[in-house]
Amino acid sequence: MNQPAPPPRRTTLADVARESGVSVALASIVMRGAEGASEASRLKVKAAAQALGYRPDSRARALRSLRSGLLGVSLRLDEPFHAELVDEIYAAAEEHGYEVVLGAVGKHRSEARALEGLADSGCEAILAIAASGTRAELAAVDAGLPLVSLLREVPGIDSVCTDDASGMDQAVAHLVGLGHRRIFHLDGGDAVASAERRSAYLAAMERHSLGDLARVLPAGADEREGAAAAGRLLADPRHPAPSALVVFNDRCALGVVDALERAGLEVPADISVVGFDDSQFARLAHIGLSSVRQDVAALARAAIERAVARLAGQGPGLQWHAPALVVRNSTGIAPVS
Amino acid sequence: MNQPAPPPRRTTLADVARESGVSVALASIVMRGAEGASEASRLKVKAAAQALGYRPDSRARALRSLRSGLLGVSLRLDEPFHAELVDEIYAAAEEHGYEVVLGAVGKHRSEARALEGLADSGCEAILAIAASGTRAELAAVDAGLPLVSLLREVPGIDSVCTDDASGMDQAVAHLVGLGHRRIFHLDGGDAVASAERRSAYLAAMERHSLGDLARVLPAGADEREGAAAAGRLLADPRHPAPSALVVFNDRCALGVVDALERAGLEVPADISVVGFDDSQFARLAHIGLSSVRQDVAALARAAIERAVARLAGQGPGLQWHAPALVVRNSTGIAPVS
DNA sequence: AGCAGAAACTAGAACGTTCTAGAAGGATCG
DNA sequence: CGATCCTTCTAGAACGTTCTAGTTTCTGCT
Fold it and tell me: B187-230: per-residue pLDDT in tens?
């Protein structure tokens, strides 16, 4: 077999030190911008580093210093909305001087493995986006190093979430304001946050004295499940047709809108649809979907701040972020019936 | 300010060794499953590790051994198709005994930074998905450690791509077989692979003696740009309406289909549409989009194999993977004109 | 000139692991 | 019974960095 060629040993701090005629310790001081070096040596060392193409070895650095400066983030690869969040997390982490390490969850990689991997790679804390693990599993991770749950409230664990109750309330209020009364909810099945949104919807309907008209229909988290649910809805003779739908998330809502239009209904003339997330993704989608916007940047920032606070010795907390309804073209006044 | 609490030092190999009454070296042997330990000590050490909740520190491990066992992967967060590829890469990497480190590119993080980050974290090689950097930039990275470019052919750099020419040819052939002649291409603008697909389209049209009917219209890589391009197409009186469109990718095609249907055209009765990628994402989307499928698993596997080969001293190469047209409901026989 | 105090610098240990080289303890064999 | 060979085990160096505890050099002041 082919013997792996010995890699051309990367240049080390010792090389830089030798080249610039100073000690390794001083070179280290210069490279990490600590104080205690004269301007003259700073220049010398930096020049040498530049010349040799020196790049500090982050593993060695992390190994020695207690702080690794690493923040782990677990996310589902197949959720575009998570990706948006991660992008903001990068920005927020940088401001706090942290590097981000990603742990992907997908068909071929379980959440448990992802979290394990993050812990092993020396992260100081972990942000878990829409973690699906049980409370006990997450608590076990949290025992090892601070865990912040994003988009899902987990009792006993630091959580940063959107206030689904407020979001649902805004959606329902908006529709009621347009004259709708028969407002149904298509839920997210067993997706994270589905239960919360479901009960938030019921509470909102109750609050508008429409409790007896409330209906929850099972749907899911993606386009196909949305389209399927819309199909079932139209075919089902048991209940009178709704004039508006509040859907678990944007992807599902997109499927719903599409299925409705295919069936010959006009959105919003015949039926209004509200999504949830206001994902970039849904904004792109031609259809101007009215949606409950989660403040991605604020969520990201808050999550990082919670992690930093935990690292500073603070206990876990729970944070709600207010969403804001964004009205576009998928909602309109209720048809006269 | 709040002083960071001293983290509760994680248990180390030395702890395990002490607990089980053996040397650190032996404990190491057991933990990494190397040979040279008796069954008895294996049991002892494993038990102790279990009891103490020991988890090896991957940084220390990587620092010492020449092989880090790490493979870096850069990807765009806002491209769901990249996510699919990454998931397969996880699977393939595992088979080869490698761990995957992700380097995300997004609004707040440039590709250069992502690649730098991967190199610094000690990856042995890097897979860059749809790298946007110039040839020189990528060559510079490749000088440091093996780089494999996925989805984009970069001269002089190891590349694993889909054979766009074949894909386009299948798409055009399929449409021609259905009686279409006026087949236009909506391109990807400045997206990676856009130029390749554009010329592949032109070549395919030529091959079917339809060169003089070929038209390339500027579009883009996402839904909105697709919808916009479709709008422009319908409004433009300069050329006779096409009976079929071959679109840069699925996302764009979805926007196109939607805009066409909104404009009152029926797909495929009035006009056929073919996408490219056959992304999971597009498959979900209710609309059954006919699309040129890139073999994600094969691409992932091949990329990993190239990386491993490079690590074993082999020179860079170029690999084409044959795509396969998947016919669904967005293509049909040409309308009589 | 002498001295204190700061500023600049350095030797060497440490981080947690793997790896090399070799030591101890049996077996096997002539 | 001594030599030879496994097998099992261990001490200690090494990886590239940071950190601690000095040591040297500079500066200003009497």
Answer: 999 999 999 999 999 999 999 999 999 999 999 999 899 999 99
Element (H, E) at B142: helix B135-144
> Does B143 reach chain A within 8 Å, measured CB to CB?
no
The residue among A324, A291, A303, A304 whose CA lies nearest residue A161 is: A303
Distance CA B177, CA A174 (A): 51
CA distance B273 to B284: 17
Q: For residue B39, which nucleotide's C1' is closest to its Cα?
A: D8
> β-pairing, B158-162 with A215-217?
unpaired
Task: Count how many pairs of residues, chain A against chain B, have C-beta atoms within 8 Å.
Answer: 166
Neighbouring C-beta atoms of residue B34, cutoff 10 Å: 9
pLDDT at res. B281: 75
Contact status, residue B318 vs residue B179, Cβ threshold 8 Å:
no
Question: Does the CB of A63 fall within 7 Å of any strand D atom?
Answer: yes
Per-residue pLDDT band for B107 (boundaries 50, 70, 90) equals: very high
- Chain D: positions less than 7 Å from a protein CB are 7-12, 14-21
Kindly list the structural domains of chain A, giving each domain's residue range(s) and its CATH number in brackets, ordered by start.
Answer: 13-54 (no CATH), 70-162+296-321 (3.40.50.2300), 164-295 (3.40.50.2300)
Nearest 10 degrees: CA dihedral of A298, A302, A305, A307? -130
The pLDDT-based confidence of B280 (bands split at 50, 70, 90) is: confident
Give Cβ neighbours of residue A73 (< 8 Å, ≥ 6 apart). A86, A89, A100, A101, A102, A103, A118, A126, A127, A128, A129
**B22 CA to C19 C1' distance (Å):** 17
**Beta-ladder partners of A70:** A99
Q: Do A57 and B68 touch (CB under 8 A)?
A: no
Amino acid making up residue A169: D
Determine the 3-state secondary structure of A322 from DSSP.
coil
| Separation between Cα atoms, residue A196 and residue A214, nearest integer Å | 16
**B5 to chain A: which residues are within 8 Å by CB?**
311-313
